[in-house]
Inverse folding.
């Protein structure tokens, strides 16, 4: 028989569920659907013209491209940081471990002006880089630097718990069967942490695509060169071009929904993977 | 059929001897951890610590006196007040929602639970700029409720209510996503036992559930608060940047910075950076409390 809810002796389901759905609807679902419904105000032709204009396409390329590169870099270095924090003991490890969450806790505008100060041509890192002929602030490279900063904790925090749970017996077996440390890592450890690594990568990517505060200061915001998609939305809003702003927002929302779906699938995979391991062990 | 497969001789030969095995281990112990640790530390220093240090150095560039002068400006104080107001409204609202959602999801079985959890996470994957935009589309002059609101002389966009709403949106999932997995892991037996022993509604929550999840709850509240006070993109879209009226502290930092008043911008930014450091410290303490209780 079709039943919405299984019977329970615990009280409070109607009020808890009612509050949840009402609040979720009012704060999140109704406003978000406004973006989609508003985009129907314009014809398909207008919509397509907006999202395929040179300036918008360039901003999509930058937002998605830089986010992808940043997530890849965070994947590599996030794995390294997680590995070092879980496997090795060194002075200041606990402090470093706590600091990894700084990009979550530091307001994005503060990160933005700080990174700009550091990477400007007279900045601590910008000056030596300028001598080497690398310009970071006010170029697409600056966008990349900001996205690497805000994406750092995602990979570290998803990979860390899986590394901690890893059975050291597996590595010992691999070692005693003659695998080199590199072979052990590639063939035994890496497959186990891969789902977590991919989840962290996707989370970092999703966050980076929509990032605004940390990027606008360091990007220089030159149209067609270093202008990110969220900034184009704001520019259109300031010109009272609501239809244009909504069209760009809808494209980005669809992209984030796809990512969210992907994250859910990956997490399901991760749970199954870890569940199996527990059975084996 | 043979019971035991003969192992090829070549395979035997490729197995490392005991000496070789220990030398592998020695080599690994000697340089790999050192090299990897150094690389990770250099990376983290460049990515995290240098920008953080830059905030405080730039804030004090023109001296301690100028620092205090900057943060004591009436506009800065008004921005601090508005930031606190937005957090004081947004955090309790999302706390209440988080408890309700976690109670419904963790203590009952119903259809569509996975979808509901995904929808709760939705604000995390929406760009903050789009979060601001959707409220403009609902409450702005051109929006759904715009004409009705202006006829009744109610201002939401470019006013304080819009800032609060945008803050509520971006901090929406924080408490819920800490509580849901925690309460799911706790199971229902303790609550069911409480019902059998005659406890009612809130009594069960206060006496049984809350003591079990208090660390996770505080954890969620602290993270929610940090984001509420630091939100920039969403608030920037709905604020209209009216000085002294609709400027939060992050927006005030932006205005000062764009006016080339860098030292004052960094002075205000350093307050937010301090907030971030305090948040990280409380978070670490809470994690310790949680681990101590559960080990």
């Amino acid at each position: 028989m079709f039943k919405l809810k299984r019977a329970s002796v615990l009280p409070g389901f109607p009020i808890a569920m009612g509050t949840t759905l009402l609040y979720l609807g009012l704060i999140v679902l109704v406003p978000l659907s406004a973006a989609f419904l508003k985009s129907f105000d314009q014809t398909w032709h207008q919509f397509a013209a907006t999202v395929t204009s040179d300036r918008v396409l360039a901003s999509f390329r930058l937002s998605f491209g830089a986010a992808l590169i940043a997530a890849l870099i965070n994947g590599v270095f996030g794995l390294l940081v997680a590995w070092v924090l879980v496997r090795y003991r060194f002075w200041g490890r606990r402090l470093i471990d706590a600091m990894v969450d700084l990009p979550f806790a530091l307001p994005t505008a503060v990160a933005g002006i700080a990174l700009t100060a550091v990477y400007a041509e007279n900045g601590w890192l910008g000056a030596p880089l300028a001598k080497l002929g690398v310009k970071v602030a006010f170029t697409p490279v600056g966008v990349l630097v900001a996205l690497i900063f805000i994406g750092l904790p995602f990979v570290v925090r998803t990979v860390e718990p899986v590394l901690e749970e890893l059975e050291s017996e597996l590595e010992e077996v691999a070692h005693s069967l003659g695998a080199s440390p590199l072979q052990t890592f590639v063939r035994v450890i890496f497959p186990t942490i891969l789902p977590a690594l991919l989840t962290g990568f996707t989370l970092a990517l999703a966050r980076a695509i929509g990032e605004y505060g940390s990027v606008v200061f360091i990007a220089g915001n030159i149209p067609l060169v270093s202008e990110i998609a969220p900034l184009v939305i704001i520019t259109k809003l300031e010109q009272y071009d609501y239809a244009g702003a909504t069209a760009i927002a809808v494209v980005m929302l669809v992209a984030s929904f796809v990512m969210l779906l992907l994250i859910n699938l990956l997490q399901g995979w991760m749970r199954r993977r870890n569940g199996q391991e527990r059975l084996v062990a | 059929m043979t019971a035991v497969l003969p192992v090829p001789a070549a395979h035997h030969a490729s197995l490392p001897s005991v000496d070789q095995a220990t030398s592998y281990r020695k080599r690994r112990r000697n340089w790999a951890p050192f090299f990897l640790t150094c690389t990770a530390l250099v990376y983290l220093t460049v990515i995290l610590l240098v920008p953080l240090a830059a905030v405080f150095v730039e804030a004090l560039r023109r001296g301690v006196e100028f620092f205090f002068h900057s943060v004591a400006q009436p506009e800065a104080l008004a921005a601090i007040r508005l930031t606190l107001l937005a957090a004081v409204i947004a955090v309790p609202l999302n706390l209440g929602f988080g408890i309700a959602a976690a109670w419904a999801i963790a203590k009952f079985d119903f259809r569509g639970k996975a979808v509901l959890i995904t929808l709760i996470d939705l604000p995390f994957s929406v760009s903050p700029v789009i979060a601001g935009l959707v409220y403009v589309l609902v409450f702005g002059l051109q929006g759904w409720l715009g004409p009705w609101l202006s006829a009744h002389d109610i201002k939401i966009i470019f006013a304080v209510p819009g800032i609060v709403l945008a803050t509520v949106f971006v901090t929406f999932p924080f408490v819920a996503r800490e509580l849901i997995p925690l309460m799911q892991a706790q199971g229902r037996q303790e609550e069911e036992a409480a019902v059998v022993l005659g406890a009612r509604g809130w009594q069960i929550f206060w006496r049984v559930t809350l003591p079990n999840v208090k660390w996770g709850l505080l954890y969620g509240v602290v993270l929610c608060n940090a984001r509420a006070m630091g939100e920039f993109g969403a608030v920037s879209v709905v604020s209209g940047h009216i000085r002294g009226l609709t400027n939060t502290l992050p927006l005030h930092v932006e205005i000062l910075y764009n006016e080339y008043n860098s030292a004052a911008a960094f002075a205000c930014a350093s307050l937010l950076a301090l907030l971030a450091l305090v948040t990280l410290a409380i978070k670490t303490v809470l994690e310790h409390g949680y681990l101590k209780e559960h080990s």
